[in-house]
From TrEMBL:
Cofactor needs: NAD(+)
Pfam families tied to this protein: Epimerase
Keyword Electron transport assigned: no
Protein name: SDR family oxidoreductase
All copies of domain NAD-dependent epimerase/dehydratase, residue ranges: 5-240
Keywords from the UniProt entry: Decarboxylase, Lyase, NAD
Keyword rRNA processing part of the UniProt annotation: no
Listed CDD domains: UGD_SDR_e
Amino acid sequence: MSQRVLVTGGAGFLGSHLVDRLLDEGHEVLCVDNFYTGRRDNIAHLLGHPRFELLRHDVTFPLYVEVDSIYNLACPASPVHYQRDPVQTTKTSVIGAINMLGLAKRLGVPIVQASTSEVYGDPEVNPQDESYWGRVNPIGVRSCYDEGKRAAETLFFDYRRQHDLSIKVMRIFNTYGPRMNLDDGRVVSNFIVQALRGEPLTIYGDGSQTRSFCYVDDLIDGMVRLMSTPHEVTGPINIGNPGEFTMLELAEQIISMTGSASTITHLPLPPDDPQQRRPDISLARDVLGWEPSVPLSSGLARTIDYFREALAHADS
Ligand code: NAD
Ligand code: UDP
Ligand code: UDP
């Protein structure tokens, strides 16, 4: 059935893909974004669409609208961006969550929260399943993001316990794909842009740290499935691709796939950078019947094509 759906952070990387998917399914979409890291380019193709509405708004302020469901994605996600104004990052996660939960409570509608694998911090267990409580530094440079998202999870579960809200918390692991910003600062976009420009690929530390990369279409599929689950399903639920790679392997694969003459250079490892990260997705398999279907090589090929074109525009 067609619904009116609110997507906060809808002009961002993941948000804009979610909006596309919801419009394709026949829903009306209200996209709310303050354009802190989001871009008009991500949603330019939707302006004028009869079922798409855009509202420039900061979720740290109350929002009174009428919708049937809420996806709360508003929050900068790249370490470079979320550390630029860390106080605003915490406010966005915490006050933004309170406002969106207040909205969901008034309307009696389900709300999906874009949480993160960062709640696991620098984990002592690998892979991470949802029962792991995490190892997070409360006072470091990543804390505004990690602890902001952890406090948001607390709020979601307290609104559930106090008000029986239909909450759905997803812990998103590193996701990549078209529409990441050229200057996003995350590893996949950095490496691809550097390789295409023939610049050295910047590995932080010795490159032995691992991440698991999920292609954006797979991630959005999991997110939409989560929203359609019954009231009993609250999460938290990991959504990510269990394939685990070192940053050195990723750099070598991107150099080879782009046919680049780029070399590799090593820069200092940022503080509190997790050494390993890999999702246990048993719960998503059981509850959502979901698992990723796009292998890293195909996802990277599509993302490289996207950045080739984006760079041609940016450099022309
Ligand atoms: P992004 O930076 O591209 O998108 C975030 C969007 O939120 C942007 O459009 C930004 O302008 C908007 N925003 C930021 N603060 C806001 C505020 N106060 N009010 C309104 N809008 C605001 O990042 P993304 O990769 O698309 O991430 C989307 C969500 O998914 C975030 O909540 C992020 O924490 C989460 N997440 C992403 C990943 C990933 O790998 N991409 C991993 C884990 C979690
Ligand atoms: N809120 C909102 N839109 C709504 C309802 C609430 O933005 O439609 C905000 C409002 O600013 C409030 C917050 O959500 O402070 C939490 O709402 P809740 O009803 O839980 O708490 P209270 O209003 O009692 O503070
Ligand atoms: N990284 C890197 N070179 C870069 C950007 C990031 O080696 O140009 C490393 C970073 O130190 C981290 C990993 O790649 O170990 C993933 O970083 P990203 O910022 O993409 O995501 P997160 O650390 O939030 O998982």
